Amino acid sequence: MAPLVSADHPGINELFALLAYGEVAAFYRLTEEAKMAPNLSGRINMAAMAAAEMNHYEVLRDALARRGVDIVPSMTKYASALENYHRLTTPSTWLEALVKTFVGDAMAADFYLEIADVMPAEVADVVRSVLSETGHSQFVVSEVRAAVTGSDRQRHRLALWSRRLLGEAITQAQFVLAEHDELVELVMAGGGLSQMTDFFDRLQNTHNSRMQELGLA
Amino acid sequence: MAPLVSADHPGINELFALLAYGEVAAFYRLTEEAKMAPNLSGRINMAAMAAAEMNHYEVLRDALARRGVDIVPSMTKYASALENYHRLTTPSTWLEALVKTFVGDAMAADFYLEIADVMPAEVADVVRSVLSETGHSQFVVSEVRAAVTGSDRQRHRLALWSRRLLGEAITQAQFVLAEHDELVELVMAGGGLSQMTDFFDRLQNTHNSRMQELGLA
């Protein structure tokens, strides 16, 4: 498929800056939430995921530098949406932290794959290399499944939690789009409003399949 | 130089386990101490250093796995010494946090280089690849030098702080050696007690040269 967006579209810098702040915010949140881990293995798994976020950050920083953009001032405008998402979804248990990690990682992967398809090759390469290191969160599946197998109450509670995570993510994504015209233009250039609606529908569908994977559906 | 220690020396597993816990402890401490950063750039620099620690951890985990050793149970016995070091050297300002990062990184690098020389090639390769990613802490130099150039009081205070860091590190290293015979045998096999004394002397000397680099000497 030919790229639908040109490499100099101003929305690309904004997209990279948004993703970069997302990586830094995820790094600090994962590390904070890892304190709830019941053992050293849990803390190490969370630390490894957090470290992967910083590796992604460095890919985005280098890509922005090649485009002549200084990452730190560019990304601060996305701080409030991402910090709000994390603040509104602060887990109260280790299982909630695990589900948040898994759902967040999966939503990011969906998002990266969707946008890579319509971008010029050099941009798609950056997006895919950021994506390529996700998947650390598979350790979550066995721990969550074990916890909900014996407890309908736990399953019900975590299913509600995961719906809330998706809802808050969509809410914050809409705030970001409402405030940043270049990003809206980028999404429009990549297929327009109907594609955006389709995207949110697909996000809902893949979210449901992940809930099944975790034993929460 | 021919290796002085054979690849199946039991101290090697212990050494890797000790280093591995050191990486995980450093990850969490750097991330915690990064909260003192006055700005986003500082937080990102600390996060990047923390992420590098987890990359080192993964090298050590894989090396131990190849030797048939499960890393998590092996490393817990080194938790108290490393947690004590960090607890006794909790910084109270961002500048103290920066100096701690730099001194800790430098001491680890010295240590890695010293031991790599006497190890068999496969072990030395692991040690050197863990070392190869250090050096993130150069960002510290310009910030500390700027702070102490205008303030003798700040220079004096940070010089005392850095001596305390070295002292606590040596104290904890001696506790670890006192409790783990395999590690003592490893050091002995690598040249004996006089080499160990030389090592602590060299550590002191390189520490002094680093204090000059930071403008603290």
TrEMBL record, chains A, B:
Xref: SUPFAM superfamilies: Ferritin-like (SSF47240)
Domain of life, source organism: Bacteria
InterPro entries noted in UniProt: Ferritin-like, Ferritin-like_SF, Ferritin_actino
Domain Ferritin-like: from-to ranges: 12-189
A Pfam family of this chain: MiaE_2
Protein name, UniProt field: Hydroxylase for synthesis of 2-methylthio-cis-ribozeatin in tRNA
Taxonomic placement: Bacteria, Bacillati, Actinomycetota, Actinomycetes, Mycobacteriales
